[in-house]
Structures are given as structure tokens and as C-alpha cells.
Design goal:
There is one protein chain. The protein has a five-stranded mixed β-sheet, covered by helices on one side. The protein has a five-stranded antiparallel β-sheet with strand order 14-13-12-15-16. It is of the alpha+beta class and about 280 residues long.
């Protein structure tokens, strides 16, 4: 491990971020690229992009995207199948912070977990194409018969104009965005165009390297974060924070999600703005 990465993780541990346990290995997940006009939409299925935390059931444990064990109440995963399930731990539209707080807690609270839904959208170990996996995961969820485990609905979309109209309608209703999944694709644990996210803005994740001191009315608190993308691009993230977040910023070593409008010539995100912490992101 590089010295800078080691210091980042030491800072994360010192911050007291309460992930309960480490599974030893992050799950191998299929990751999305960003939708762009010109994609052949007839090849894809459309679903809602849920504003929660990625959850991976490996047949024994429920894990986050980063490989941390989720300590859910025993009843939540009781009777779940040995077959791996990929999904989202979701509380509701616009309630990401509530989902994050519930899932991170070392001692689960039944009252909070009663509001969590595991939205299943794929079966990573299934050998078939996504066209076949849709029916398979819907059948599995139906047989499981747990109200808090739900199968993500899949629909067809026929044009870019229709896609944008659905996106606009969903966002106005409080949704985060849409997902496109190629029907004739296998489950590949990599980032590729078989899975595309459709949002009103671009977003990505970066790791916090340093807290930069504020000036003016932010004197004495965090003014900006120095962050680094997975590709090694470093930049300052100075907008989008509440006063409470500036007083208690994401820890060094933690991952955050930011929104932006394209990249400049050197690869730095343009008009980058803090969106939310992502402590569940893969290290």
C-alpha cells in the first residue's frame, strides 16, 4: 500500500467511522458508465436509480460496495438464499442520509431497519443474459416472500426524447435518476457500457486527501477538501457544503460523491460541487 493511502486509512480509522467489520475482500460488482445520446436504446432495459447504498448478498453475509459487513437485524436476512444478490439498501427518495445512518450503525435498531428495503436488481452468479436474469431475480424475490426484499422493475424505452421525459418526471417526483441495462449482457464485474446511469448531472467519487482551511466567514473551519479521483487527478472541492459539514467534514481517507459539468483539458472536473459522503465506496 502506498504511504499516502496508508495515511488516509489511518485517518479514517482515527475518525471513528463506525463500519462494524471488514469482510476481507470487496465484492466483484458490475459498475456503470454514463449514458450519452446515440446509444441504441432498443438493446436496453430501463429502471429507477435508487438513492441508497449498494448492497451485495454473497449467500452468507450482506456487504457494502467496499466490502464492509452490514450488521442488519437477524430477521432482515433470515431465510435469504445461498445465491448472491446485487441490489440497493434504500429507505426512500431523497432519504439517502437516513439510509446511510441506519446501515452504518454497529448495533442495528429494529425501528430504523423496518424502513429499509433491499431492492434487488441482479444475480451476479447467474450464468444467463440479463434478459434471463430479470425473470430469475423476480422469481427469487417472489419465492423469498419478504416485504422488505423487492425486485426492481424493468421497462423498455424507445427514444432519447422518451428517456429524457421519464428522467424529468422522475426527478420532479424526488428520484435520483435512471439506469439502463443491456439485455444481452452477462454479469461482468467491471465498469462497462452494459450498465449506464442516466442523470440530470454527472457525478463521480473521489477520496479525501486533506482539509484546507477556510477564509472569511469560514475562518476556523474547513474551507475546501483536497480530493483525488481513482485516476489520480487531484483538485479542490470547495462548494456544496452546509455549515455543519464544514464544521465536521468527511475524514481524510473517506470517499465523497461530487457533481460536475465535464472535464477540462487536464482532466480536472469543471464546476465540481460536493454532493454527499460515500463511506461505503470501495477503497
Amino acid at each position: 500500500m502506498k504511504r499516502r493511502e496508508l495515511l488516509g486509512w489511518l485517518g479514517l480509522l482515527a475518525s471513528g467511522v463506525p463500519w462494524p467489520a471488514w469482510s476481507g475482500e470487496a465484492p466483484a460488482l458490475m459498475l456503470s458508465n454514463v449514458y450519452r445520446p446515440g446509444v441504441r436504446l432498443a438493446d436496453y432495459w430501463l429502471s429507477e436509480k435508487y438513492d441508497g447504498l449498494r448492497g451485495f448478498w454473497n449467500g452468507r453475509q450482506l456487504l457494502t460496495r467496499g466490502g464492509e459487513v452490514v450488521v442488519a437485524p437477524d430477521w432482515f436476512t433470515a431465510g435469504w438464499p445461498a445465491e448472491p444478490m446485487d441490489g440497493e439498501l434504500w429507505v426512500g427518495r431523497g432519504r439517502f442520509e437516513e439510509a446511510l445512518s441506519t446501515v452504518r450503525r454497529q448495533t442495528p435498531k429494529d425501528y430504523d431497519w423496518r424502513r429499509v428495503r433491499f431492492m434487488v436488481f441482479d444475480l451476479p452468479a447467474h450464468p444467463g443474459l440479463f434478459n434471463e436474469r430479470i425473470q430469475a431475480y423476480q422469481t427469487l424475490v417472489r419465492q423469498l416472500n419478504r416485504p422488505w426484499v423487492q425486485a426492481v422493475a424493468q421497462q423498455r424505452v424507445h427514444s432519447h426524447a422518451e428517456l429524457m421525459e421519464r428522467l424529468d418526471r422522475l426527478v420532479k417526483a424526488g428520484g435520483e435518476g435512471l439506469m439502463l441495462h443491456r439485455g444481452d449482457s452477462l454479469y461482468r464485474a467491471e465498469r462497462n457500457d452494459d450498465l449506464l446511469k442516466v442523470k440530470t448531472h454527472e457525478d463521480a467519487e473521489a477520496r479525501v486527501l486533506q482539509h484546507l482551511a477556510g477564509q472569511g466567514r469560514h475562518t476556523g473551519r474547513m474551507g475546501a477538501l483536497l480530493v483525488e479521483t481513482p485516476d489520480g487527478v487531484q483538485f479542490r472541492l470547495g462548494t456544496g457544503f452546509t455549515d455543519a459539514q464544514r464544521d465536521h467534514p468527511p475524514a481524510v481517507g473517506e470517499w465523497v460523491t461530487y457533481r460536475f459539468r465535464g472535464l477540462n483539458a487536464s482532466g480536472v472536473p469543471r464546476f465540481a460541487s460536493f454532493l454527499r459522503p460515500r463511506p461505503d465506496a470501495q477503497p
